[in-house]
Amino acid sequence: MQHPAYGALRQVTPYASVLLADNPSPMTLEGTNTWVVRERDAGDCVVIDPGPADAEHLRRVADQGSVSLVLLTHHHGDHTDGVGQFIELTGAPVRALDPALCRGAEAIRDGEIIKAGGVELRAVATAGHTADSVCFVADHDEPAVFTGDSILGRGTTVVAHPDGHLGSYLKSLRLLAALPPGLRVLPGHGPELPDAQAIATAYLQHREQRLDQVRAAVRDLGPAVTPRQVVEVVYADVDRSVWPAAELTVQAQLAYLREQGELRD
């Protein structure tokens, strides 16, 4: 069974399976990936990102067995809107980097080892896409990293100003690029990828290229250029349906250049 597969649990590694929510859009790609994590002989499982408030999807996830813990990669609604309903179905505690998202459990600490479902997950704070983004590294015989929206299965991640912060995101990508080679990427959207180190390095290169394009646009259009004007030049090759998100990304890029002293208001 290959991605995308709606309504069916798809095994990806010996300990990680995915249920794809039927909420496709330009921002969610084919939909939100809800990950079910457990060793084969474990009596419980961990659910990463229950997904949207889709009763059918949430019921399918709950039907996978006893859920001992819910982990959230960040606060966006396509990952978290279903949390309340999912708690009603499972009674599971919810943990996230942001204490405001937690239910019946404490906030995740950067670097913490979380043990549940027979699997050890190491939390890696990866601010940038959002301030509360976190990834989970499965230190296993077949290692992988659950990346939420910090790395997607295809395309690149939106860093939407002001919650998204480009300087933080570049730092987070460097952390992911420093992971050992061969860790599979198990993302919040899109298909899995073979090597987090290689993908994070490619993301860094892409961001630097975009920044160079923004710098050039500012030079050509002047320091009073608007984010929309930059989008029309730098993101001309991108589907116009995502231009509003691109404008937020450009705001983050311009803010970064100001922080670096390269641009003045």
TrEMBL record:
CDD domains: metallo-hydrolase-like_MBL-fold. GO terms for molecular function: hydrolase activity. Pfam families: Lactamase_B, WHD_BLACT. Transmembrane segments: none annotated. Residues 31-189 form the Metallo-beta-lactamase domain. InterPro entries: LACTB2_WH (IPR041516), Metallo-B-lactamas (IPR001279), RibonucZ/Hydroxyglut_hydro (IPR036866), Sec-metab_biosynth-thioest (IPR050662), WH-like_DNA-bd_sf (IPR036388). SMART domains: Lactamase_B. This is Glyoxylase-like metal-dependent hydrolase (Beta-lactamase superfamily II). It comes from Saccharopolyspora spinosa.
